[in-house]
Amino acid sequence: MRTPILLVLAACATAPAPIAATPCPATVAPPPATAPALDEAAVKQMSHAVLDAWDRAAGDELEDVLGPSFVQYEEQRFLPREAFFKGIKTRADRHAPVHSRTWGDERVFASGTAVVYVGDAVEHVPADGDVAAYDEEGSNTLVWTRDGGRWVAVLWQWDPAGLEAERARWDRWLQHGHFNHAPNQTLVAAVKGRKPGTALDLATGQGRNAVFLATQGWKVTGVDISDEGLRLAREHAAHERVKLDTVQADLDTYDLGKDKWDLVTMIYAGNDTKLVERIKPAVRKGGLFVTEYFAFDSELAGGGAGGWNPKDLEAAFEDGWTILRDDHVEDSADWAGQRKTKLVRFVAQKTGDTSWIQGRWHAKDLDAYWQEVGGVVWGVAFSGKGYEVNYIDGTPRALTSLVDGDRAQTFAQKTAGDERLVFDQVTVTRKGRGWRGEFAQPGKPVVAFDVAPADLPRVPALEEADRAFAADTAKDGADGWVRHFDEHGAMWRQGHRVEGADIRASIAKTLAAGKLTWEPVTSGAHGDLGFTLGTAAFDQDKLTYCTIWKRQKDGSWKVLFDIGRAAQ
Length: 568
Known about the structure:
568 residues; alpha+beta; Nuclear Transport Factor 2, Chain: A; Rossmann fold; 4 domains; ten-stranded antiparallel barrel; 13 helices; elongated
């Protein structure tokens, strides 16, 4: 039995000899320290500190921060840790001037064991001997990994960034022919039939759209950062024997001017809302803004290309502009490999002063009243015993016409300016103190009429009848509403004429859902027909309306037709 005792003594010197062999208590080693998780702010602070120490040649501050396998990679040159520190010491020994940085965009990407920091910065390099001071923009990538209880940097990569890097990237892209040669079809459709003027094609690239516009008679300036793109654009223009002005410039700083252009395009030129705000004052009245680009919910936008949100464009062009096209579709892009994706196609026209169409007008056998109420431009015309209700509203803008409260026709607006309003089949042209209207149906002679200002007074009795209509409806609901209708009266609801017993059913459903109130703002009459225009509210919704009235045998007025529109 001596052998087991000797083994125990060898293994455990403190064990008493006379006692039978027992195992020693297990010694549990403490778990290795683990570096704490980092939030984005901490990663940015650590990364800034590394570059700040390098800028000051403070190598001692980096000894515990840079891991054993650290390497610096800059412009195809690798510097391992030892060579990196040698360079810092050389700068410190000769008292090299201290660099500084202005940080731009920064991003952090994290996983369980590694964190990647990417930050753009302008490095300010002071004068040093015969070398003048200069600034250099670059992208810095630092990779951090856990090393026991600490985080250490294992890579610092610097790449050129900024204007020159962007120019070089586009030059390479265009040299390899990564572009479409045909003009963009959204642009082609937008300028079809328009009188040519001055055009600015932003991010013109190889000039496919600029040259197309030039062949259509436009005086075109193409702006781009790429030398190669502008060279190709000039060659294309020479081949087509058209004049094209090219400007090499950064769109962020290029002077767009004011009231200078009849057309400005952003065709696959990004989704910079700040650029859009600079474009708007540069467009003349009646001029167009045209853009096509990836939508915000496309896979390309999610991959870093960015994308338009139609709501942002609609808001940007809400005031002083008419939106002519506002498409959010899935279709084939005519750029970036012609892949199918979600796109935004948007066209807006800077409106001139179109208030000249508003007023009270007379022509042979015709009285016409045009007035804007609640953002909707209403037009009421009376001829003989008939009437016509027109309104201009919507996005895109359009003219809708209802003859005798029926047979609605809608005409898309094409242009709006100080002298002319153009819709599909309908043209209104300013003429002296009045205007001319023309209606051109396919295969039929053009119907034209000239109107002149007329003294057509408001009719207080009509406005009082309208207020009584509102009061009785508020008091008696559907009964009060139908009590004010002529026996041949009708309403226009959801694109359809509602008449007879259906009037009660329709308004009862409406009144059961909320509170309806209204107030007239103007009126007019022609024989036994009249109208009121006013503002309304349905709970929180703002509305505007037009009501046509018919004089009864007892001299009172009753509703012949009623239509409401959402306030714009």
